[in-house]
Amino acid sequence: MNIALAQLNYIIGDIEGNTTKILAEVDAAKAANVDLVVFSELAICGYPPKDLLDYPSFIERCELALDTIRIASNEIGVLVGSPSLSGLAKGKKLYNSAFFFSDQKLLAKVNKTLLPTYDIFDEYRYFETNNVFECVDFKGERIAVTICEDLWNLDNEKLYHVTPMDELIKQNPTVMINLSGSPYSYNHVEKRRTRMQLNAKTYSLPLFYVNQVGGNTDLLFDGGSMFINRLGDIVEECEFYNEDFKVIQWDSSTLYEDNHQEYYDYDIGLIHDALVMGVRDYFSKVGFKNAVLGSSGGIDSAVVHAIAAEALGAENVKAITMPSKYSSSGSVDDAQKLAQNLGSPFSIIPIKKAFDAFEETLADEFIGTEPNVTEENLQARSRGIILMAYSNKFGNMVLNTSNKSESAVGYSTLYGDMCGGLSVIGDLYKEQVYELARFINRYGEVIPYEIVNKEPSAELRPDQKDIDSLPPYPVLDKILFHYIEGKKGWQEIVDLNLEGADEILIRKIIRMVDRNEYKRFQAPPTLRISHKAFGFGRSMPIVARYNH
Amino acid sequence: MNIALAQLNYIIGDIEGNTTKILAEVDAAKAANVDLVVFSELAICGYPPKDLLDYPSFIERCELALDTIRIASNEIGVLVGSPSLSGLAKGKKLYNSAFFFSDQKLLAKVNKTLLPTYDIFDEYRYFETNNVFECVDFKGERIAVTICEDLWNLDNEKLYHVTPMDELIKQNPTVMINLSGSPYSYNHVEKRRTRMQLNAKTYSLPLFYVNQVGGNTDLLFDGGSMFINRLGDIVEECEFYNEDFKVIQWDSSTLYEDNHQEYYDYDIGLIHDALVMGVRDYFSKVGFKNAVLGSSGGIDSAVVHAIAAEALGAENVKAITMPSKYSSSGSVDDAQKLAQNLGSPFSIIPIKKAFDAFEETLADEFIGTEPNVTEENLQARSRGIILMAYSNKFGNMVLNTSNKSESAVGYSTLYGDMCGGLSVIGDLYKEQVYELARFINRYGEVIPYEIVNKEPSAELRPDQKDIDSLPPYPVLDKILFHYIEGKKGWQEIVDLNLEGADEILIRKIIRMVDRNEYKRFQAPPTLRISHKAFGFGRSMPIVARYNH
User: Is 3.40.50.2300 the CATH classification of the domain at A270-465?
Assistant: First the structure.
């Protein structure tokens, strides 16, 4: 049996466009003499469709699309993900389903059993849990069809009481197929591969695993669809970050040899590629071609600039440096050199006039007060306004350049440097930003070495350095990681005896994270590369008291 | 048996503070000869605690707090909500539980069965589903204890397959007690009351229902705890929007008469009180005393100003009017008169200097371009900067003054009039804002009649009126309501034959709503008064194509 893994990049809600893509692959599969072509989870509407699922008209459109796919299934089997009406008197109205079409008929509809509802997942918000387990007989094979999370409840990590394959295996299937919508994070590639291999070994069955690819706002789907043999060896693996279509000539009596390219956990190259795809897809899917960013001469904006240049073409990324009286001349030069290295348009727009105008405008109101953070924020916000004005005038989307460390502790100005349509490196700690800069410079200088080597400064006061108000980044990042990703309380972090981090510092940093929840609430969507990014996946109360 | 309904206002995460409050009520209950004092759902940590639940140290602190309550339960029964460890090898780590303490012992722990996961609820994100049903015997009564949603699965609206009371009734309980965390929306008061009455009637049992009260960021808990007799009559009802403590001398042989005060569905007075509480609690719970807002002389800022004055004291609400060359002199006068009527400090800060400075600063960059929305946004953003500078300098929190109609269609400027720590009327359509203004003026002019009667204008261009780019608000609001609250697609709305709304207009308005998802993503938290507010309860993809 020839099975095709169709790993596509869908646009959420673009049911008609996605269907056109799917139909083209069905045709390609027919031409390649494929018996069964497999698409990913909720392929019809793109994953995750979120509250679009609440619209009955949305589900109707999915049903119409499914019918065109059914009609196209003459002489081929098609397995495709879509929401479907549950038709139940009790329970949720929808299932997360896999439709198996063959010879223009619906051979089977398989519903998802395990509905991930944690971190960035909220499937039980929409879907009813399946409790019927039936394999699908097709061309002499008995196929155990499951959907994404259905294959994750095994070993010592059982988040659910039912393991679908434990039920399906009773019917003696000859092969497993899983339709997935599994987003990238830097420790997820290897984990996903290992879990899928474990499934193959546990049930002694080959597994065809189809993931989607592409950036959907903050979520970066990396692809990596697989064919795993019954011993758990990965025989074929689709590309990462690109669409792919692999036909596997498979018969159940052959074992097949490991043929896939190896990727490793925490690979800065994969993070880099994920971010490039994230920027590319965010822009292309909303119909933007050009970006603009504030280029300060610092490491954060430099890395964002380089990523954006790769994603959109350097000529489509406008860099504006907006010096104040506190900016060093080096900063302007470094930003300019970066733009030259990349080949991006570049402007210098000083903020002095705007800043002075605000000072004059507010002089009466502020009589008798001392300069404080207000004036620092005025600089950042004047820059934000200039970028947004440029965006309004020329249609470039503003890229946000904040990193995770400063976003965590609130070392950023709301409506100032926090502005933008997309945060590119907002899920990378400062140390990771440096690592990414070195990766970008792996073949030679792209980001000027002056930028990589200078001491971090916001340049909002004379001679200001980040280290004046924050601990050194290697220390800060470790505390933040244990608090955010590690979900440790302050006492647990104290107990780790991290170098340079005593109880007073640790509690201070945690308080800063907590108190800046209100700022992050208004931050742009952030490309997610870790297993705990700010945004929907970390849903904290704003009005609250924490563990002080 | 004397049962006390303890309806308190908790701070999320303030486990120690909440526990102190609970212990004080336990003492008051003892003094009042109460046999059983009942607190609301997750009272220990406040509802909803969101991802704080992911921290093991947070759960440990809840356990410590519970132990102090257990010790205080000498000579009294205490029923209190808290998260608890499930201890399961499979499934989620936590239950949403009710702890029943008596004589310093844990008499019973009841876990929540039905975990609401829709709209603003996400309980399956954290909690395991209960499947054990046992009544609690206490002082000769057999009590069926349930938690909030557990009592909502009856009649024709069964979202779940199990109805906990259908199980518990088999053990012949003599009374029902429900611990709840049920937020206000303008059509929920009557619905909640009716559902609880239906429970009493269905099971022919009296019901003690305890809700929390208070604003928690966007969610407004209205209280309204109840004692309902076995015929379904509401015998006692606690206050709305205030803490309350009611002792009910109850024996199961007496029926009791209806004694409660009636509230009606969609009562603008309840909406008003909800917003006042929302502002008051947002400020008090984060430790702010003073607000600042941009007072344009329009209806939206006027209503926000009046609400804030009532919540915080007029003297604590600074109003700043920021005229441009397009502002009518009437606008400034009206804003000033409003501040005088209320008794708030007031300043006039023209934006001309700031606006001119930006025009000069951007002149080179913008050579050869025509004025467009850029210049309108520059005005709005200059105002935003001034408000934020005032906030930074004096510690007043900026109140956002956008309404739901303009937020829906994106008739607002990101980082301009969209700025602020809290959106007060962001869940009220424009027509509701007028209704609220009339309510505020019910005893005479508070909001100047000039403001109530003038035609809406953003005053960002000469002689600009909202109606130039939007349909009349009565038409717009109806379309929006059917799309947002009603979840209807464009064809369904066309089929309603709304006056003044043809297909072209309806599709245009819907497209505007969809395309501005990115703006709303960065909006401040919005006090929720409807059953479908922007924010967490309406979770839409940003990068998507909708039903064009």
Answer: no
